[in-house]
Amino acid sequence: MRGEASVLHLDLDAFFAAVEQRDKPSLRGKPVVVGGVGGRGVVSTASYEARVYGVRSAMSTREARARCPHAAFLSGRFHAYRDTSERVMRLLRDVSPLVEPLSLDEAFVDLARSDLDDLSVPSVTAFAERLRERVVEATGGLTASVGVGTSKFIAKVASDLDKPDGLVVVAPGTEQDLLRPMPVRVIPGVGPATAERLRRVGVHTVADLEQISEEEMVRLLGKASGHWLYSLARARDDRPVVAEREAKSVSVEGTYDTDLTDRRLMESLLTRQAGEVSGRLRKHGLSGRTVTIKVRLHDFTTLNRSTTLGSPTDSPATIARLARSLLADLDTSGGVRLLGVGVSGLADWVQEDLFGETAEEEVEELPEVEVPHHSRRTWAPGMDVVHTEMGRGWVWGSGRGVVTVRFETAETPAGPVRSYAMDDPELSPWRPPESTDETGSPPPA
């Protein structure tokens, strides 16, 4: 923990939904939900107007529609989110050379490497206020919540205290006073299971946690977690802000419209996903030792199984073989709604076989199958389109051979709504220059 409040955490408020409201004037001030729009979709981000009705990230779209049926449910536009994120990250890197992005919408900044004359609380507070104003200007109106503290932990906690559009600077020496009344879930790594285990021994707040000895914490939670919670309960966090974060894993997964019950079909899907993971690994010059499969059953139970090799691999056949063997140990008779394959324990090299057997394994021939990937509509709600006469707009909805479009952009007032045949030659998807991927699969991270 530092002697001054020099770690800043910036979190863009309701990021995906805020970008949609910025670019779609008719949705400003109204509930917006971004994520999967189908019956099996999951909410990625909800605007604050939708959160009033109880809509939250990771909630099923079905439940979100039941809670807020009048919200705009949009499929998302990665190119718009990526462009906005890049503007913010450039702004942060102008402030300090040490910027650690955690995702598209949040990052840590090391103010000790900035051009600030001093790191006193008034100076840091004034600087953070100006930074928030610059974010609004750079993004065309998006707001950010900012926390500043003596460590990454404290800065992250502070940025959550006054959302949205807030600023909290935690003065050095006041960290434990801030933390003590808070529930233990505020500490990173304390999920529902750990919180329940602590509750059983009478621990509800950070103040309660502070009363437990390090030895008892290790006995309750294990060596790594015990030491970690013991330190953070006392606001001890020496993690540096790291400008370049290495990839930790590469994975591919798919959600399916109909529950899968055919084991051969699942094996074929895993083999295909293993090939995609291998391709991503090789594209970035990586390999990995641990292969993991993710299986979500019909009742939403999610299972993860993994196995670790003696040396890293990028072989699609090896990854597929291990993934299929992991699936063989699971009972999937009730049906599977999601399958995924991932590789972790990454390295930038592949171990040569000690006995010279480095030839690529022959991929098992599997029957041709129709892959029931989660359907993607030609005209997804929220996607950008352009009409030869009306200009640019976005898809309001589609079905029964008709697509309905509202014609407006971030630079125009709320525009008119028109309906067209889905195959109308004058209507086409719009993509920004140099954008080739509407879904925008990011590099592994």
TrEMBL record:
It catalyses: DNA(n) + a 2'-deoxyribonucleoside 5'-triphosphate = DNA(n+1) + diphosphate. Residues 7-191 form the UmuC domain. One of its GO terms (molecular function) is DNA-directed DNA polymerase activity. Its EC number is 2.7.7.7. Keywords: Cytoplasm, DNA damage, DNA repair, DNA replication, DNA-binding, DNA-directed DNA polymerase, Magnesium, Metal-binding, Mutator protein, Nucleotidyltransferase, Transferase. The record marks 16 as: Substrate discrimination. Residues 410-445 are annotated as: Disordered. HAMAP family: DNApol_IV. Belongs to the DNA polymerase type-Y family. NCBIfam families: PRK02406.1, PRK03348.1. Poorly processive, error-prone DNA polymerase involved in untargeted mutagenesis. Copies undamaged DNA at stalled replication forks, which arise in vivo from mismatched or misaligned primer ends. These misaligned primers can be extended by PolIV. Exhibits no 3'-5' exonuclease (proofreading) activity. May be involved in translesional synthesis, in conjunction with the beta clamp from PolIII. This is DNA polymerase IV. The gene is dinB.
